[in-house]
Structures are given as structure tokens and as C-alpha cells.
Amino acid sequence: MKNFMKDLFFIVVGCIFYSIYLSMIVIPNGLATGGLAGISISLNHLFGTKIGVALILMNIPLFIFGFKLVGKSFALKSAIIVFISSFLVDLTNNYFSFNALDEKLLAAIFAGVVSGVAMSLIFIGGASTGGMDISGKIIKNKMPTVDLAKILLIQDVIVYLLIGTVLGVNSVMYAVIMSFVKTKTIDAIQEGLASSRQCIIISDSPEEIIHQIQVKLGRGVTLLNAEGTYTSKSKNFIYVVIQKNQLSPLKKIVDSIDPKAFVTVTAVSNVLGNFKQTSYSVQ
């Protein structure tokens, strides 16, 4: 129940940000976006269809046919997101009026940031906004020989062609800018949330370093054999995953034992197995 409430919190807050992204930025500024939201905006311009209603109607068959593919929990959470966000979008558009920004490019960039925050929160909650991701998995299930990335790319191209036909080529360009900023925002948030670091240490004194890591940091260590291609000498390298706040003590340990040791550090988005961590993940 505790985990469910935590996921629900992230989902609800993500829905609020997602509705702000559509109703307060994208729609008033005459922008477009990819996925089913882009199709809904195009239908709104063509036939006056309510954007939220169109989103729900298009998502319903996708959830029905893709229920087994995405799993019960994921599908249920995603369905909640679609209904809440669609309701909020239509509600805010019916009762509130938002002014467009003077600069359309600024609106596109800000929309990308807000949507990136929204998607990150929703992903942390273990769900999605439904739409083209589910349809891509359905097509992949029917056509297993076709790569999923290609299916998603073709879907995006079709949506952008529709947007370009209805709203003009400029709208497609702004949509691409939004998509790029959204992706970078999600990456930045994940980097900030990732409290784990993967470290590789190549040293001539591996035993002492391993001992200090185990005693002072309380982390398990893997020792692997390697050979330097330049010197053709056998080397041992240490592999360890630590919390971000343990990075400075680790550097001090290595520097005090072997100042010439070669060390690489990489952010880890998620760790499975016997590892105590406090980070969230948007994966």
C-alpha cells in the first residue's frame, strides 16, 4: 500500500504537469506535439473535437488490445493518467483562458521542459500517458520481425505529416524542438535522481583498496582480471557500485593508497539485486 500511494502521488502530480503543458502552453500558443495528443489537437482544428475526449476515445481501444502486452498494473496506472489528464485539459480549456506568449519558440522550449517534468514523474510512478507506445507494442506483437524503434519512428512520421497538413510545417518544427527539449529534460532529471555511481578502478594495489572500501564504505566489490594492450601487462580492476554521497570518500581511499590509479565513474539510473539504494528511476 505504501508503494502504491507513492506511485499514485507521482502519477497525480505528473498528470497536473501534463495538463498544464497541453492546456496552458501548447494549445494557447497554437503549437502541436507528437503522439495521440498531436492527433487530438489536429482533430480539434479540423472538427472542433474536444482534445481530452479525443484522447480518451483513441486510448480506449489501445488499452483493450494492449492490456496483456503492457501488464495489468502498468495498464491500470496509465489508464488513470489518461482519464485524469484528459479531464483536466478539457476542464481548464472550458473555464479558463490563457494568453499566448510573445515568442513561439520560447513557448515550445518551455513546453518541452514542462512535459519532460510531467513524463519523468509519470515514469517514476511506473506508468505512461498511453498512446503511441502501446500501439507500437501491439504492432510489434503482430509483426515480431519488425524492430520496435522503426515502428515508433513510422508512427511519429505519420503524426507529424498530419500535423504539417493541418497546422502547417512550422508546427512540425516546433513539435520537434519540444520533443528534443523534453528528452533532454527527462535525461537531466534522471541524472539528478540517480544516487548511485558505478566505479571502475585500475590499480597496482587492488587488495588494500578493496579492504578499505569494504571496511569504510560497506560495499561489496568485484575484482576482475585484465590486460593492458599498450604494455601487455596483466592488471586487476575493481568494480564497485556506491551511493553518490560515497564518491568523495572513495576518491580519498584510492588517492591515499595509489595516487596513480586509473578511476572512471558513471551515473547509474537503477540497480537491481542486493543493493541498498535511495534513488528513483524514470526507466
- Number of extended strands: 4
Radius of gyration: 24 Å
Q: Beta-strand percentage?
A: 5-15%
Query: Average pLDDT value?
Result: 85
Query: How can the largest sheet be summarized?
Result: 4 strands, antiparallel
Following the backbone from N to C, one meets helices and strands in this order, namely HHHHHHHHEHEEHE
Structural notes for this entry:
The chain is an alpha+beta fold and 283 residues long. It has two domains: 2-192, no CATH class; 195-268, Alpha-Beta Plaits (2-Layer Sandwich), CATH 3.30.70.120. The protein contains ten helices and four strands; from the N terminus they run H-H-H-H-H-H-H-H-E-H-E-E-H-E. The chain has a four-stranded antiparallel β-sheet with strand order 2-3-1-4, covered by helices on one side. A hairpin with a 6-residue loop joins strand 2 (222-227) and strand 3. Helix 2 (35-47) packs antiparallel against helix 3 (51-70) and helix 3 runs antiparallel to helix 4 (72-95). The model has no long low-confidence stretch (mean pLDDT 85).
Please give the structural blueprint:
Blueprint: H1 2-26, H2 35-47, H3 51-70, H4 72-95, H5 104-124, H6 132-142, H7 148-167, H8 169-193, E1 196-203, H9 206-217, E2 222-227, E3 234-243, H10 247-257, E4 262-268
Antiparallel strand pairs: 1-3, 1-4, 2-3
Helix pairs in contact: 1-4, 1-5, 2-3, 2-7, 3-4, 3-6, 5-8, 6-7, 7-8, 9-10
